[in-house]
Amino acid sequence: MATFVDQVTLHLKAGHGGNGCVSVKREKFKPLAGPDGGNGGDGGDIVLVSDTQTTTLLGYHRAPHRTSPHGGPGMGDHRAGYHGEGMVLPVPVGTVVKSTDGTELIDMVEPGMRFVVALAGQGGLGNASLASTKRKAPGFALLGTPGWEGDVLLELKVVADIALVGYPSAGKSSLVAAISAAKPKIADYPFTTLHPNLGVVESGDTRYTVADVPGLIEGASEGKGLGLEFLRHVERCTALLHVLDCATLEPGRDPISDLDIILGELAAYPVPEGQLPLLERPQLVALNKIDVPEARELAELVRPELEARGYRVFDISTVSHEGLRQLSFALGELVAQGRAAKAAEPEKPRIVIRPRAVNESDFVIKVEGGSGGNIYRVVGQKPERWVAQTDFTNDEAIGYLADRLAKLGVENELFKSGAVAGSTVVIGRDGHVFDWEPTLSSTAELATAPRGSDPRLSEAQRSTHSRRRETYLERMDAKTAARDEMMRERNAGMWNDDEGFEVERPGAPDDTAAKED
């Protein structure tokens, strides 16, 4: 059964970007002709478009989960991955898009407005795009970034020129059906209308829309009945038409008391900042059901009091169509006056998209206390995207990330923030955790190592000049000590160098003394 939905929560998941490809061109007589890995394709965005042909959010109420296609991965021979097709979601004109915390993102009050509600992921670069004169054969590629995933709230506020307000069963739906081609549900019991009904009325040269707001009762602004759910639809209207039932059989009710209660509820409803309060807008009064003799007498009785309050009063009957022509022309005059006043107002300020300032930092470092010491959190669009693009199973890709962060100035800011070697560094709000080791130099392009590895990440680090000098002096000192020990043994007669090396044997005859004898 068709119904009306004016609030719905969308669960969105934009497409992820495709991964870049790591490939080396191989052909006859050219076994290693250079990198030829293609780039990954971008995912598909999810876009909201205000459409005049869409009148309800019912489709999103029944299917709130929407996912756009992912981008394809890159391939060898410089073949790029396919791009995910964007998803377009039409919404009624007057839809307000809010975040889960209630923050208004955009008010789609004009037909054709487009809003990217879920941004897709970006495709990763292949190793062919990462190659340069210094890095001729990259052994890694960048990963595709994930698309935005989360919830948004859609709230529909009907855009109409005239709002019909009144008690339940006052004849508002019958009035819409009588003056327009709309066919709302009509019955002889309260709260027949469960959603606003729109009708288009042509009065002379003026064409305008009327909205039948569901019946209001006392306490509607506090949540009683259906008023709180649908009072928001009155915000967009230029003028109000109070439809009063002159033939009600309920005890304690009459047109004057009904009007006072409705006025109290309209006054208690807070409109958004910048909009005209409901009771300050043009208002007319229609005394309905005068086809009933008792209702006609009651209408003649209350008319003077209503006119004394400053209202323009019309006696109408939706059954016999008495007084409807005069009422439609009066409503057309109010609409024309409202449009003329709106045209005379200054134009709304345009949305200006300003480029980022040249001196604006790409990241910030937040120092957070922890049980194991300070945690240094790096927050910024660039470093967070770079981390998402890094394949942490590839040492060369990790080295490339370190070079990018150092070039961006992350290490210098960490030094200024008080970070030391071994400090805990977190990139992103829910990102990767690193034990920071400062980089001495950015030499990933000049490093000679197998593809896919970075020698800076291995345990065997290259010795510094001072360490090599210290090792050399230690070796020279050891040689000098060995030479001195040999001289002491020689002087002690333990060996001589006349005819080679000879070791003295205890108890052996002295050859020199034997020769002298």
Automatic annotation (TrEMBL):
Alphabetized Pfam families for the sequence: DUF1967 (PF09269), GTP1_OBG (PF01018), MMR_HSR1 (PF01926)
Lineage summary: Bacteria, Bacillati, Actinomycetota, Actinomycetes, Micrococcales
Residues reported in the UniProt entry to bind GTP: 166-173, 191-195, 212-215, 288-291, 317-319
GO cellular component terms, A-Z: cytoplasm
Binding residues for Mg(2+): S173, T193
GTP-binding keyword on record: yes
Name of the featured protein: GTPase Obg
Region entry Disordered, spans: 444-517
EC number: 3.6.5.-
Gene3D superfamilies documented for this protein: GTP-binding protein OBG, C-terminal domain, GTP1/OBG domain, P-loop containing nucleotide triphosphate hydrolases
Main localisation: cytoplasm
Keyword Hydrolase among UniProt keywords: yes
Function: An essential GTPase which binds GTP, GDP and possibly (p)ppGpp with moderate affinity, with high nucleotide exchange rates and a fairly low GTP hydrolysis rate. Plays a role in control of the cell cycle, stress response, ribosome biogenesis and in those bacteria that undergo differentiation, in morphogenesis control.
Coiled-coil stretches noted in the UniProt entry, renumbered to this chain: none
